[in-house]
Amino acid sequence: MKxxxxxxxxxxxxxxxxxxxxxxxxxxxxxxxxxxxxxxxxLDNTKVALAREKIAEAEARLLxxxxxxxxxxSAGASYHRHEGPLQxxxxxxxxxxxxxxxxxxxxxxxxxxxxxIAGVGxxxxxxxxxxxxxxxxxxxxxxxxxxxxxxxxxxFETAAAWYELxxxxxxxxxxGEAHENAKALADATNSFAxxxxxxxxxxERAAVEALVRERDTEVARENLALASIRLAALLRIxxxxxxxxxxxxxxxxxxxxxxxxVAVLTDLALKSRPELAGSDAELAATWRDLERHRYxxxxxxxxxxxxxxxxxxxxxxxxxxxxxxxxxxxxLYWQIHGLGLGQHAGVREKSSxxxxxxxxxxxxxxxxxxxxxxxxxxxxxxxxxIAIGRDAIARARRSYELNRSRVFENQGLPxxxxxxxxxxxxxxxxxxDSVIDYxxxxxxxxxxxxxxxxxxxxxxxxxxxxxxxxxxxxxxxVADPSQPAETAPSSESAGSRAKRFGFFGRNR
Length: 508
What we know:
The chain has 13 helices and nine strands. The chain has 508 residues and is of the alpha+beta class. The chain has two domains: 29-66 and 133-283 and 354-501, Outer membrane efflux proteins (OEP) (Up-down Bundle), CATH 1.20.1600.10; 75-118 and 303-333.
């Protein structure tokens, strides 16, 4: 299994890796798009694997519950030897020397009594035999629902980690450009100071700014490495593997139509969330447990045994040759535990567990509604912040260009560009964070509705923007606009996905 997993991971990563010679591939990071990250997470995440094993455990318990009415089979041999006094039923004490042996279906045949270990034996509480499979089936359903919930959370965590990697790469690009601009400013102010056209204090101030921007670049480089490690850990690949996100930091992902009423989305979530399905199943299971304890005194217990085999006995240590022996016994009885007090306590315990499950279910419902409302509010707010960030970039870049023009035309000093550089960095960071945060809110809302973030849908959503969309969404660009946009493979159009999901997948 490990070899199969390794082969699958390598095939996916190599398919996404940049082309080049062997030496180049060793140095270059692995390129990974969102769809590939989701495929890897779904393939071999430990949380998902553990949840699936819990399904296997629950199904095994269901099978065990369904076998309660099936008898046990026992076969073997036994030997019994007694030497000394025994008391008869009338009170007389006899000195007895005897031995016996038994071999066949069952074991432990002694004298005239029943075979101690029945060859075919069944001892069952009929109430348990009826209610236990019903409860176990509900708990198996609960385990399946919990597995779906875990998978949804893991896919969301993976998507979030991938977007954080994309954010870190964009932040490094911004920090790198800011460092280059600050170095150019430091050189210019130093030249002005040396010729007497500027102040030495301005030169030192610009030099400090260059050092600060260099430090910011190193921090951004560290954040990129940490984001890569976090994503690699989720994907269960070597943390030393450097991952590079394939995708544009400017691309918006539209998973849910924000024009929909939040009440409609909440209603959908209450019908679709696996956490609620799991809570419903657990509630039903605890109710079955309560019913079993309530009706247990009215439903009998059954004990049946049958044995056959060779039996021999004698009045000395040698049991003799013997003959075939067959024993059959059956009993049907009713039982009340602890003079009824134990029975009552058991009912109270199961009743409390049922009420706890009911409260938990209500709490899950409230939590689901709150998660939908919170994610919806975040997506709406972050949608508005994108426009603010776009406008801030345009104004900051305009300020930067105007200040540079003044310096080139000898109408100002280079130090006047410093604030424009700082404003441009802040604006570009604001826009980058706004887009990434919006995409995270969209995926969080989509997950809150009970929908798994699939790799096919991610490929469609994470497509490269068209030229018109790029012009609208990226007035300045977070990345260098002269560089070609990285694209993610698309296996399904956003339009067809919108038809499948109704108000999901609206494209702007």
